[in-house]
Each structure stands twice: as C-alpha cells, then as structure tokens.
Amino acid sequence: VSQSRYVAQEFFNSKTGLPEVQFLDEVVEKYSDTQNNTRIAMQRYAKIHRGDFEIYGDAYGEKTTSKSDYQQMVETMCDEFGIHRHRIKFFVPEGTNPAQKDRTTSFNVMMRNSKGQRRCFFSPDCKMLINDMKNVAPGKESNSAINKKAKLDLTHPSDAAGYMIHKCYPVIRQTFRSYSVNNTLMIGGGG
Q1: Per-block average pLDDT, block size 10, for the chain (191 residues)?
Q2: Cα–Cα–Cα angle for 59, 131, 103, nearest 5°?
Q3: What is the pTM of this model?
Q4: Based on the number of CB atoms within 10 Å of its own CB, is 42 exposed (0-12), middle (13-18) or buried (19 or more)?
C-alpha cells in the first residue's frame, strides 16, 4: 500500500466570493513510510514555502507506531529541514475519523455543487489523485460506501485529500426541530 501526501492551496474566487482548492502536487511512494514521504515533500517545498505547513490526517496516524506518524513528521521537518515547530499546524480528527459518506459528500460538493460551481481543481501532476477521482465508486451492494478492497491502489489518494477537504469544507447537516410554546392552536384567516 502506498502513502500519499498532497500539496494544495486555497484561493478565493473574486467572481463568486467562494473559496476554491487547487491540488498542486502529490507525493505517492509505494511501500514507503511517513518519514520518507515527508522528506520528499520537504525537499520540494521547505526552501520555497515561507508560510505555515498545514497537515490534515486521519485519526489512525497517531496510533500506527510507538511514535505517531505526526511526531515523525514534525521531527523530520524540524530536525532535517530547519522548519520551526510553530509553522506546523495539525488538523487531525480526535478519536475516530469522519464518516466516509461525509468525506465523500464534502469532496463531491467541492467538485461540483448543486449550482454547477466547481471549487476543486487538480494539477495534471496529481496523477494518482486524478485516477482516484475517475475510478473510485460506491460498492454495488452497499449504502453508498466505497468498496476499498476492489483495487488496493485506489482510494488511498482520495482518502488523503478527503481529510483536508472535509475539515475545511464539512458537510453541514440541517436539523429542524419544532417546539410547542403553549397548547393553543392558532389559525389565521382573512375576511
């Protein structure tokens, strides 16, 4: 299984006033580990990027080894590339990951919302992520859950990108509640 890292930037569209996400680059290494993928990404961006580094991940990244994936990333970025700790921001779900259905919905809305607006774009350099966008689909027998076992090369890239999309642009569920103020039935009418 490969590990995936994506470089994305958020822009505001001056015509719509809405944020857009552009995926600019990907680091996908088969049979790689967190430190190696972090090194590859930092070799590309540590010297040219002067802002903060925002890292979006899954809840399990903290549980994979005795030293969490996120601790390994920080150590690699700070020790090997001289990035100050205060420039590294983590956005990781506490406890469990957001539901797959919610992450997928967030991504789909950014790809094209109900008004036909596209707010998520991909550089041609993001080959694995583009492949996922074209080929990952819900399983036939399930309730829109993605079949992650159909082809192991698929779903990991879109999962990696999906955590960022969901954190920044979550699905907002509207709930409606009614409350009875008193027991009076009010009827309006005209004359």
Answers
A1: 73 88 87 85 92 86 64 93 94 86 90 92 92 81 66 78 91 70 60 48
A2: 35
A3: 0.78
A4: buried
